[in-house]
Write a structure and sequence with these properties.
6 helices, 6 strands, alpha+beta, globular, two-stranded antiparallel ribbon, about 130 residues, four-stranded mixed beta sheet, CBS-domain
Length: about 130
């Protein structure tokens, strides 16, 4: 049976710090072709910022993306998955939480990657 750790194996972590701005995060996501960035401080996961967050901030608010820090708009303490979770577990959690990205975190607290709805679709898992 496939696990989420197999899906994210070899993935380069997309990460920034909480002091980075929304514009820096958006540029990073475009340049690296990812839909989210992990917000890290001292090697620890503090939050996640997604393309949906960027759209909400850019379009629906008057916050200046050049001065608004990720710490002010990220989803803090995001839900995570253990490496032995199945893709079906990930799909259920995403559907229940109405989000599209889940960090995969090992028992030692090390982040292995981020599984996305796109990853699940590519693995043949229904995400509805």
């Amino acid at each position: 049976m496939t696990t989420v750790s197999e899906i994210v194996r070899g993935q380069e972590l997309a990460r920034l710090q909480s002091a980075n701005t929304i514009r820096e995060a958006a540029r990073y996501m475009v340049e690296h072709g990812v839909g989210s960035v992990l917000v890290m401080e001292d090697g620890a996961l503090r939050g996640i910022f997604t393309e949906r967050d960027a759209l909400r901030i850019f379009v629906a608010t008057r916050r200046n993306p050049d001065y608004t820090r990720l710490a002010d708009v990220m989803t803090g303490a995001p839900q995570t998955l253990p490496p032995d979770a199945t893709p079906q577990d990930a799909a259920r959690r995403m559907a229940a939480g109405k989000f599209r990205h889940l960090p995969v975190v090992g028992e030692d607290g090390r982040i292995l990657g981020v599984v996305s709805q796109r990853d699940l679709i590519a693995a043949g898992v229904a995400t509805g």
